[in-house]
Every structure is written in C-alpha cells, then in structure tokens.
Amino acid sequence: MKIRYQFVANSSSTSFVIAGGDNPVIKITLEVPVSDLSDLVTNDSSEIKKWFLDNCGWNGELEEYCQKRLDIALKQIANGKTIYAGNISNETENNVENAIYYLEIGLPMSEDYEIIYYR
C-alpha cells in the first residue's frame, strides 16, 4: 500500500481521513511565478503607461491614484526592475487565477517583490 502525506496534482482524486478538533482548517499555500498571472512583462516605460491607461484610465487620463502607481512603476523600471502587470478574474481557464479569485487569497506581501498597484 502506498501512503502519501500530500495531495497529488496529477491524480483525478485523493482520499483523506483527518483527525482534529472542531472543524480544523487546512492552510493552502500557492507558489506561482508572477509571470504566469501576468498579461504584460516589461522593462519598457511606454508599455506600462499603455497598460495603466487601458486598465485604469478614463478618456486618456489617469485618476490620481493610478498616476501615482504609474510613477512608482516608472521609477522601478529606471532602477532596472521588471514590471509584471495583469488582471485576476474568474472568467478564465487558468486554475491558479480562479483559485486566487474564488478563495480570495489576494497577492501576499513578499521581500521578493513590491506590489505597486492592486485593486
């Protein structure tokens, strides 16, 4: 008999038995390269400006909050950082994106990156 202590991703189902107190909680952790969730990966100022206008603009103008976020992104590009931009939706076939959306996981803080814009 094979005993596993983790769920298996390539299996159609996994059986489990858990002993615990009153309705224990399972902590789910996802480690996903941010590029897998990004529509745009760039070091180009004009590309991130266009992304902000497309996603946060109105009549070719950015609201103040978005302009401040764009300014931060442009400074990061000037400092040699890569910018990752995207949208998390429930209208996708990306299972990780669906999990983030439905489980309301959000984007956690990390020392590996800075969240510039999240709405």
Describe the secondary structure blueprint for this structure:
Elements: E1 40-42, H1 45-56, E2 57-58, E3 61-62, H2 64-78, E4 83-85, H3 95-102
Antiparallel strand pairs: 1-4, 2-3
List keywords for this structure.
119 residues; alpha+beta; elongated
Summarize the structure.
With 119 residues, the chain is of the alpha+beta class.
Describe the fold and architecture:
The protein has three helices and four strands. With 119 residues, the chain is of the alpha+beta class. It has a two-stranded antiparallel sheet. A two-stranded antiparallel ribbon has the order 2-3. Helix 1 packs antiparallel against helix 2.
Strand runs, count: 4
SS class:
alpha+beta
3D shape = elongated
- Arithmetic mean of pLDDT: 81
Identify the strand order in the major beta sheet: 1-4
Determine the fraction of residues in helical runs and give it as a percent range.
25-40%
How far do the termini sit from each other? 48 Å
Contiguous helical run count? 3
Q: How many strands, which pairing sense, and closed or not: the largest β-sheet? A: 2 strands, antiparallel
Radius of gyration: 19 Å
Low-pLDDT sequence parts: none
